[in-house]
Amino acid sequence: MTVPLPPEASATHPAPQGHSNLVGLLEFAARTYASRTAVRTTGEESLTWSELDLAGRRLAGKLAAAGVGRGDRVLVSLAPGPRFATVLSAVLRLGAVLVPTRHQAPAYELEWQIRDADPILVVADGRTADTVEQAGIAVMRLADLSGEDVPARPEERIDGSDTAFLLYTSGSTGRPKGIVCPHAAVLFAVRAIAERVGYRPGDIVWNRLPISFDYGLYQLLLCALAGAELVVPTSELSARELAEMRAARATVVPVVPALAQTLARLARRDRRPTEVRLFTNTGAALPPAHSAQLRTAFPGASVVLMYGMSECKRITVAPPDEDLVHPGSVGRPLPGTRLFIVDSAGVPLPPGETGEIVSAGPHVMAGYWRAPTETARRFRLAPDGLGMAVFTGDRGRLDEAGRLYFVGRDDDIFKYRGWRMSRTELEVVLADIPGVDAAAALPPGPDDRLCVWAETSLSPGQVLDGIRARLGPERTPDLCVVLDRLPLTAHGKVDAAALHRLARTQS
C-alpha cells in the first residue's frame, strides 16, 4: 500500500516557504521573535533569537579566520545550550557542515568520528579538547568562542542541496555511519514535524536529549520555527527533575521511553502540578503502559507518538493522544511524503499486510558519508519510481486510513535505551577489549535486556567495564555471560536461541 499526502498549509507557523536553508530559518526567528529567549540553561545562561543571530555572525568571522569554509566539517563536542547554538549558527552561515558529537564522549567513539569525518576544526572543551589537541588536530576551545571580534567575511550562498549536518548513527557495518543531511531535507522535516506536533509561540521546551541525537538537535530548529524557548538542564537527571521543570515553567517535554518512565515515577511521588501540556516520544516505541503512566502522572498533558529514523528524520507523527483511539498506531506519514509497505521483492502490499516500511519524499537524506555500499542498500529508487526512498529494514503494516503500525526490525539493528545500536557494533567493541577471544551480541529479547557473551579469562564485570569505556554507560549492556565456547549451529553460525536460553539462566 502507498500512502501519499499533499503538502499542508501551516496556520501556526508563519515561516516563509521560500527559505531553502537553515540559515534562513534562524534569520526568520531573529526577525520575528527578536526579543524572545531562544535558548537558555537552567544555570541562567541565555540568548534571545536576535542575540543568537548576532553571536552566530560574529563567530562565523572567527571560524573563517581559522580556515573554515564551504563544505568543511566542523566537529562540535559541547554541552547543549547557548554556546552550542552559536556554533551551529556560525558553521551553517559559512556553508560548512556541523558534526555534533556527544559532549565528553568516550575517546574510542570520538576518535572514530574524527577519523571518519575528517574535520578541519574541532570545537570542544575539557578533556575532549585536550585529547584532540594531543592528536594534532586544530581545536577551538570554549574560551575561544568569546573575546575580540573578527570581521565577518561575506556569507556564502547556501543551496538547499548543500550539507548542513553529518549525524552519526549505528549501522550493520559495526561502526557508526555519518548521515549526510542537506539543508532542504532538514528544513522540510522541521516544517512537517511542526505541523503535526504543534509547538506554539511561548512554549518552553525542556530538552534532556543529547545534541548528537537528531531529535535533540532538531529541538532548536523546531523552536526557531514556532518562536518557542529551548531550556537545557545543566544538572544530572535526579529526584529534583520535576522541581527544575516547574522552575523553568516547561510546557513541552521530548522523551525517550526510559525518561518517560523516570518522569512518571517522580510525578507519582510529587503530585504538585506542572505546566507540561505535551510529551513527544522518539528513540524507541513507547509502550502503552508508559503512555498511560505519563497521562496519569501529568493530568491534562497530551502524548504524541511518532516513528522514524535519522536517514529521513521522521516518517510518521500521530496527532496528540491518537493512540487512545487507535492503539498501537504511530500516526500517518508526514505531509508531502509517501509511505509504502513492501514485500521482499519491493512490491507494495495492501492494507493490513506486514512488510518492510519504505519512506519517500523531500525528507530523505543524501546517504551515508563515505559508505557507498551501505548507501546503496538503504537508499534506493522509490517503489513508485519517483525519486529516492529509505528502505528502513523495519516491518510494519498500514490500516485503511493510512495509519502505520510498527511491528519490528528485520536485521540486527535495534533501539536500546533510546539509542540506535547494532549487534555488529557491539561485537566490534568486544573484539577491541584485550583478553576477549570471541564474542557475540544479539538484540534484546522479550525481557528487553541486552546481553553479550564472551570467550575470555576476564570477569563479566571487566568485559562490561571495557564496553562502558568505549561506548559510555547508556549503551552498555545489562549483562555479560562468560563462556568456554560460544554455541554454534550446524552451519557454524552463533546459535541465537541457545544464547537467549543461557541469558535467561543468568537472571
From TrEMBL:
Q: Which InterPro entries match?
A: AMP-bd_C_sf (IPR045851), AMP-binding_CS (IPR020845), AMP-dep_synth/lig_dom (IPR000873), ANL_N_sf (IPR042099)
* GO CC term, one of those recorded: cytoplasm
Q: Biological process (GO) annotations?
A: amino acid activation for nonribosomal peptide biosynthetic process; secondary metabolite biosynthetic process
Recorded GO MF terms: ligase activity; phosphopantetheine binding
Q: Which residues form a coiled coil?
A: none
List keywords of the entry alphabetically: Ligase
Gene3D superfamilies of this UniProt entry?
3.30.300.30, N-terminal domain of ligase-like (3.40.50.12780)
Query: Where is each AMP-dependent synthetase/ligase domain found?
Result: 28-369
Q: Which Pfam families match?
A: AMP-binding (PF00501)
UniProt key word Ligase: yes
Keyword set includes Ligase: yes
Q: Which PANTHER family match?
A: FATTY ACID SYNTHASE, NONRIBOSOMAL PEPTIDE SYNTHETASE
Protein name, per record: AMP-dependent ligase
Which organism is this protein's natural source? Streptomyces minutiscleroticus
